[in-house]
Amino acid sequence: MAKAISRDDPRPLYKQVKTHILNTLYGDGMPTHAKIASERELVDQLGVSRITIRQAMKELVLEGHLQAQPGKGFYATGRPRRGYELELLRSFTETALAHGKTPGSTLLTAETTVPPPAIVEGLGLTARQPAISLKRLRLLDGKPVAISHDWIPAELAPDLLALDWRTGNRSLYAELRTRYGIVPHHGQTLLSAALAGKEEATLLRLERPAAVLTVEQIAYDTAERPINMTYTVHEPATYPLRLEQG
Predict the structure, then answer these.
(1) Helix (H, G, I), strand (E, B) or coil at 103
(2) Cβ–Cβ under 8 Å, residues 96 and 176
(3) In this model, does residue 80 exceed pLDDT 90?
(4) pLDDT tops 60 at residue 245
(5) Residue 181 Rama label (left phi>0; alpha psi -120 to 50; beta)
(6) How far is 206 from 196, CA to CA, in rounded Å?
(7) Residue 62 and residue 74: Cα distance in Å, rounded?
(8) Candidates 3.30.870.10, 3.30.565.10, 3.40.50.300, 3.40.1410.10; correct CATH number of 84-241?
(9) Interval 105-127: pLDDT, tens
């Protein structure tokens, strides 16, 4: 099991604490009105400061996931969350688990090839430089919700395709981080809408004409090097996205 808090994770510590608590609330099936661990217990469990714990708790209360009872602690509200967080630095697998869902995937294609011009430009490659192409149908509780197509410069992860990508909850970011020491630090996201093509409608079980949400993302490491470019088609009814601000 991955550690709840990692100093190598580019997300702020309080965000990691928040994800840990959300996993406890929804992934572990905590009943409504159940009391969660105290601030002191979380400090001991996660190895972070009380200020960090309080910042995470404050956001969870404001978002309606926790209720604070002075002198007693924090309690689960059982309030369902609307939409799935769109976070460049968190994988589909992590997001699904944080919502109490079972992530899965069906491998569509996996190959090393010369990418199209838009990918070459986005990843800063030369015209004939190869990239790893990984295309998967993403599932939540067995239901198709998105089609993701990842592109990674082949020189950064030469043996990536030797892994079994048919495994239901294998995380690309986790593999890049643990096997190759590649950690996404920041990036950019472009949101758009489109009509589903024939293949997309078939895979997502949509009746055409049907609207889909498209998300194009480029992730960079701390040296400003492009490490991954992703194009995802989302089925908005079953996988709505939410942007958190502040």
Answers:
(1) strand
(2) no
(3) no
(4) no
(5) left
(6) 8
(7) 12
(8) 3.40.1410.10
(9) 899 999 999 999 999 999 999 98
